[in-house]
């Protein structure tokens, strides 16, 4: 058996083109990785991380476990296509071995084995398994078709609008398996064999169609099947289907602790190309659901970035709330990628604007505990006054970092892409904190908190959000609270919740004061207030629209007071609220302090 | 006799009623407060002439009384159409036309938390200052010998951040007037006005502005205050930018007066929805057109008078009330 017939050509050409492109792309991306990243890979290879990554590849790239959490039907669709196809290939391989023993068989010999195996003795077990797997994949294709029309049933209100290249690849993919079914069935009609699916259809064809027609049909069907494969493979590295192969190295690299940062790096390419454009990120986006902005979501951002068509209007129009990243089945670090795109678009290198910061120190007081209110807290002084009362009640000696004016923490600049300027702020504040010898740094602003924790080198200084600090005071008995009859609902600030993983402390504090009523979307799924400093594109009116939709949900709990723990959220919700009062956590604590 | 319901018993409502009576039409004023006068009741003196607000108010109230105009006090209108109004006490009044003269709502300065209103007692609003003048308690608020007093213009006006994009018109000249009053009361104090633009549109306003600078030495700084914070000696520290010199500045003051703007009543939305009335993006009710239909709503039998359609001065309001009465009379004659 020589395992070659002319219809194999489209497939062979496609497969060769695909593997060359893949090797070239991956090679280039790996080669361009920073030295430190390469070192991480080499050091990580012989460790547990490799095993864990392999496990994750099976769970995610094949089984699509995370998509099951979004919607079981959607998960099944993705799994049947990925895992089903994988099994078809793997079992197909085993089938070839079972038929011809251990000998070298070219690629097309495995893929089109049913065509070549007609002269060999029939093995019904393999025929059955292969038919079952084909049916498994076909059910996925059917669901994919169905999703076009009934996406809501599959947990998606809106689906991705695809570009032409994706549509071609998508059409080829959808035809591959029906084409395979017809091709194999026709061969079964002529030469018998096949399982419950191809065998049955083949028998029916044999009865109703003349042999001459069947011969022509067989040739056409195999040519068509091979062409679909060929087109799909050629299109794959340039379309959304690049994710099939890219997610695998991404998982490994992530396990080896490679991360995206505020400057673009070669590792980003693995993340960007690992996006399957499944569109799961569209529904959670409030710019979409409230404002109807439908071309800036992560799927479109990554697509534009990948093809080099990213415009500032798209990169800048994002709240960086992280609701999409939280749902992303590939766990792409969407916020960081957005930030480093903005860096490329907006950063001004060698920034000298801030030279005047040298030597400025407006801080006051002394103490091991430092308090950094943050710019937004200074603009919402009720929080500041409340913190003063709390510190006083707890008898804490406080070093006030910025009560009389401050230098920004730098995060708003970083979020806007001005990362070099942000760096100046970080350097200034780090030096200031070190100079005053504090051991704990408390801030009322989650934006400051996140940057202090992630981008500042503050070894030896514990950084706490005021909700955590207050919680500790209450727990240790330093702050006595009187529980009242108030009913509160809590809005999770993005930077505090999804951004820093602080969900429980603010809730525990509220529960010490009164009754806590949870809104529909809470904790990891909490909505964004809409006034994020990260979005420089939407108008105030649009911010207000989002704030109104969020406060409507919070007010629906029936609570008289909306509590939040971010000065920006407080300001945003304050103008969206109709009945409820909007207050910072510290304000309700200060009011409840036992006299 | 034709009957017209006037919703609101401020200057606009009272003047409309007086003009209607003269034309042989029966006006009925429905006022939610327990006396006539609207926001004018709390005002001290009026710009640009420093005429006591009570002069205007007393005159209008006297005429209303003399003409025996029907007034329902402490009563609000729940819903209305051009033919009837349902009152808060459950009564239903029938009529031949309705004039909406419900005025405006003062911007709540607590929303601009950065200025510290409601947090620090050295921060008051322009409306508070008028009241303090009436009660003779200004010294109590500003201290015996204030060194500096600051006025901040455009609080809740021309401010996208609080969704009030319109200009409230009267605050500029109110700021000038109040600055002069403070300077007269505290000749030793420096008085600062922080503004974005100074809009002196009325007769005598520009002259008053010039007088404030030349005769009273009041300082005008182009730039908004960004935040206010208390100091250790119980004063206020304000931060601003002088946008003419391009320099940030900070100063301690003894009193910060916020010139709060006029915003649309929340009620407008529901009434507009009930009757098919138009609401401007600012929230104020939108007249039929701004030239020949200023007091008409575009809906048969419903008319507007005063600041329910936009911020106006007392003089403009009273004039518009006369025009509204004229339009109502015209409408009732044509209908009959």
List keywords for this structure.
heterodimer; A: 595 residues; mainly alpha; Fumarate Reductase Iron-sulfur Protein, Chain B, domain 2; Rossmann fold; four-stranded parallel β-sheet; B: 336 residues; alpha/beta; FAD/NAD(P)-binding domain; 2 domains; five-stranded parallel β-sheet; 8 helices
Biggest interface, CB < 8 A: A-B, 16 and 17 residues
Strand content of chain B: 25-35%
Averaged pLDDT of chain B: 95
Question: Low-confidence stretches of chain B at least 5 residues in length (pLDDT < 50)?
Answer: none
> Helical amount among residues of chain A, as a percent range?
55-70%
What is the CATH first-level class name of the largest domain in chain B? Alpha Beta
Determine the structural class of chain B based on helices, strands and strand pairing.
alpha/beta
What proportion strand of chain A?
Answer: 5-15%
Helix content of chain B: 25-40%
Whole-number count of domains of chain A: 4
Please, what is the CATH homologous superfamily of the largest domain in chain B? FAD/NAD(P)-binding domain
- Gyration radius of chain A, rounded: 30 Å
> Unreliable runs of chain A, pLDDT <50, ≥5 residues?
none
Q: What does the largest sheet of chain B look like?
A: 5 strands, parallel
In the sheet with the most strands of chain A, the strands line up as 2-1-3-4
């Amino acid at each position: 058996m020589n395992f070659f017939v002319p219809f194999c050509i489209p497939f062979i050409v496609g497969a060769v083109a695909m593997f060359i492109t893949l090797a070239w792309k991956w090679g280039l991306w790996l080669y361009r990785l920073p030295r430190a990243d390469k070192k991480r890979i080499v050091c990580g290879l012989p460790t547990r991380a490799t095993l864990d990554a392999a496990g994750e590849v099976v769970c995610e790239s094949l089984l699509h476990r995370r998509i099951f959490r979004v919607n079981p039907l959607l998960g099944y669709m993705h799994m049947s296509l990925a895992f089903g196809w994988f099994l078809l290939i793997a079992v197909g391989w085993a089938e070839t071995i079972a038929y011809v023993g251990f000998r070298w068989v070219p690629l097309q010999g495995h893929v089109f084995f049913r065509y070549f195996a007609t002269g060999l003795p029939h093995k019904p077990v393999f025929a059955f398994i292969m038919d079952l797997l084909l049916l498994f994949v076909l059910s996925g294709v059917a669901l994919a078709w169905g999703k076009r029309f009934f996406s809501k049933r599959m947990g998606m209100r809106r689906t991705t609008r695809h570009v032409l290249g994706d549509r071609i690849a998508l059409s080829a993919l959808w035809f591959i398996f029906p084409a395979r079914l017809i091709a194999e069935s026709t061969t079964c009609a002529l030469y018998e064999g096949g399982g419950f699916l191809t065998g049955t259809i083949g028998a029916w064809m044999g009865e109703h169609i003349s042999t001459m027609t069947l011969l022509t049909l067989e040739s056409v069907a195999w040519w068509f099947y091979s062409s679909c494969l060929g087109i799909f493979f050629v299109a794959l590295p340039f379309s959304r289907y690049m994710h099939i192969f890219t997610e695998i190295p991404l998982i490994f690299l992530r396990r080896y602790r490679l991360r995206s940062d505020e400057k673009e790096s070669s590792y980003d390419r693995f993340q960007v190309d690992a996006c399957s454009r499944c569109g799961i990120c569209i529904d959670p986006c409030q710019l979409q659901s409230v404002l109807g902005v439908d071309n800036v979501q992560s799927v479109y951002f990554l697509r534009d970035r990948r093809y080099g068509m990213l415009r500032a209007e798209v990169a800048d129009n994002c709240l960086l709330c992280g609701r999409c990243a939280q749902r992303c089945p590939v766990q792409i670090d969407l916020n960081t990628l957005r930030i480093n795109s903005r860096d490329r678009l907006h950063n001004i290198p060698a920034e000298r604007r801030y030279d005047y910061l040298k030597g400025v120190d407006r801080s006051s007081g002394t103490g091991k505990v430092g308090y950094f209110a943050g710019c937004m807290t200074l603009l919402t002084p009720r929080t500041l006054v409340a913190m003063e009362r709390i510190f006083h009640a707890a008898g804490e000696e406080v070093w006030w970092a910025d009560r009389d004016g401050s230098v920004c923490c730098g995060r708003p600049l970083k979020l806007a892409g001005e990362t070099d300027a942000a760096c100046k702020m970080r350097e200034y504040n780090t030096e200031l904190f070190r100079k005053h010898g504090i051991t704990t740094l408390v801030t009322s602003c989650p934006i400051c908190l996140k940057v202090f924790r992630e981008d500042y080198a503050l070894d030896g200084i514990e950084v706490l959000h005021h909700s955590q600090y207050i919680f500790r005071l209450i727990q240790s008995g330093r702050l006595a609270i009187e529980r009242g009859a108030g009913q509160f609902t809590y809005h999770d600030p993005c930077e505090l919740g999804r951004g820093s993983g602080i969900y429980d402390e603010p809730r525990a504090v509220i529960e010490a004061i009164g009754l806590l009523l949870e809104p529909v979307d809470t904790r990891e799924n909490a909505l964004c207030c809409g006034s994020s400093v990260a979005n420089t594109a939407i108008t105030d009116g649009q911010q207000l629209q989002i704030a109104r939709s969020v406060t409507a949900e919070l007010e629906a709990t029936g609570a008289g007071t909306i509590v939040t723990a971010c000065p920006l959220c407080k300001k945003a919700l304050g103008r969206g609220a109709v009945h409820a009062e909007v207050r910072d956590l510290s304000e309700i604590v200060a009011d409840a302090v036992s006299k | 006799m034709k009957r017209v319901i006037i919703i609101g018993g401020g200057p606009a409502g009272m003047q409309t009623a007086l003009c209607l009576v003269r034309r042989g039409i029966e006006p009925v004023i429905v006022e939610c407060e327990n006396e006539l006068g609207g926001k004018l009741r709390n005002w001290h003196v009026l710009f640009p002439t420093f005429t006591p607000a009570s002069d205007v108010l007393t005159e209008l109230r006297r005429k209303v009384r003399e003409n025996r105009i029907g007034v329902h006090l402490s009563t609000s209108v729940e819903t209305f159409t051009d033919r009837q109004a349902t009152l808060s006490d459950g009564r239903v009044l029938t009529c031949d036309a309705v004039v909406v003269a419900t005025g405006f709502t003062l911007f709540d300065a607590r929303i601009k938390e950065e200025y510290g209103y409601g947090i620090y007692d050295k921060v008051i609003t322009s409306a508070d200052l008028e009241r303090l003048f009436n009660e003779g308690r200004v010294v109590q608020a500003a201290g015996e010998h204030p060194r500096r007093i600051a006025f901040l213009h455009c609080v809740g006006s021309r401010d996208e951040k609080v969704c009030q994009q319109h200009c409230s018109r009267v605050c500029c000249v109110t700021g000038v007037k109040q600055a002069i009053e403070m300077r007269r009361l505290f000749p030793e104090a420096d008085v600062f006005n922080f503004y974005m633009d100074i809009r002196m549109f009325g007769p005598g306003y520009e002259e008053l502005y010039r007088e404030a600078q030349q005769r009273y030495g009041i300082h005008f700084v182009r730039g908004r205050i960004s935040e206010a914070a208390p100091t250790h000696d119980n004063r206020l520290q304000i931060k601003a930018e002088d946008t003419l010199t391009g320099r940030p500045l900070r100063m301690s003051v003894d009193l910060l007066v916020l010139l709060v703007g006029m915003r649309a009543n929340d009620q407008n939305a529901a009434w507009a929805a009930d009757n098919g009335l138009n609401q401007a993006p600012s929230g104020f009710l939108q007249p039929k057109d701004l030239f020949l239909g200023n007091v008409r709503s575009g809906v048969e039998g419903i008319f507007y008078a005063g600041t329910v359609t936009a911020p106006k001065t007392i003089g403009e309001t009273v004039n518009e009330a006369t025009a509204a009465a004229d339009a109502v009379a015209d409408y009732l004659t044509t209908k009959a």
